[in-house]
Amino acid sequence: MTLVRLIAHLGYGSRKQVSAMFREGRSTDADGEVLYADDKAEHAAIRIDGEPLDPPAGLTLMLHKPLGTTCSTKDPGRIVYDLLPPRFRLRAPLLSTVGRLDRDTSGLLLMTDDGQLLHRVVSPKSQLHKVYEATMAEDLRGDEAGIFASGTLMLESETTPLAPAALEVVDARHARLTLSEGRYHQARRMFAAVGNHVQALHRSRIGGLGLGELAAGEWRVLGEDDLARLFSC
């Protein structure tokens, strides 16, 4: 792949715009030597305006999604891509959210341009556990854990029961719910099915990955160790 095509695929601009970068001397190697469009260089050695090139295809990142943002490329309000460098939205292949969190749910969101990884995470066969912290409008009754674990709970308008889910009661109005599947608005609908309403919902963990010290609105690129930990649980 030519340097122009590589850099364009990373979202830095169209091929015409990237060609102009080379003519303007904005592309250099790690030693500051100007690169030309027909040069050959290792990805890690390329600099644009003195900054290292973004990660190559195969990028996976973790974002602490704040409330009020949507997992969409187009929305009248704020979207998760607004929290990333603008060029990340223009990468090819596309950097996609791995599943979705609705506007009123915060927490751990994965984004990747690796189609195989995306499929592996969202596939029901993976049974990758996702942990949610829920704040309820009413006190918990006490029988929710048994109902959720039974494998017989049916959601409205669906024809197959939910897989067993684990519920840990933190206090009267706070609970930790662990799911192994990802149906539409599943956590909220489960509590609605037992007569309660979720006031706040936060995803704290996917598989073996937690947010750690990552603050709301912040993100970081995941390495091989992170991805191994993701599937360790």
Secondary structure: elements and pairs:
Elements: H1 3-9, H2 15-23, E1 27-28, E2 47-48, E3 51-52, E4 60-65, E5 96-97, E6 105-112, H3 115-122, E7 130-136, H4 144-149, E8 166-171, E9 174-179, H5 186-193, E10 198-206, E11 209-210, E12 219-221, H6 224-230
Parallel strand pairs: 6-10
Antiparallel strand pairs: 1-2, 2-3, 4-6, 4-12, 5-6, 7-9, 7-10, 8-9, 10-11
Helix pairs in contact: 1-2
Distance between the termini: 38 Å
The major β-sheet equals:
9 strands, mixed
Q: What pattern of helices and strands is seen along the backbone?
A: HHEEEEEEHEHEEHEEEH
Give the radius of gyration: 22 Å
Regions with little confidence, pLDDT below 50 for 5+ residues: none
Describe this structure in words.
It is elongated and about 70 Å long. The longest helix is centred in the first third of the chain and has 9 residues, at 15-23. The chain has 233 residues and is of the alpha+beta class. Helix content is 19%, strand content 24%. Strands 4, 5, 6, 7, 8, 9, 10, 11 and 12 form a nine-stranded mixed β-sheet that branches. Strands 1-2-3 form a three-stranded antiparallel β-sheet, with no helix packed on it. A hairpin with a 2-residue loop joins strand 10 (198-206) and strand 11 (209-210).
Summarize the structure.
The chain has 233 residues and is an alpha+beta fold. 19% of the residues lie in helices and 24% in strands.
Pick out its properties.
12 strands; alpha+beta; single chain; 233 residues; nine-stranded mixed sheet; 6 helices; three-stranded antiparallel sheet
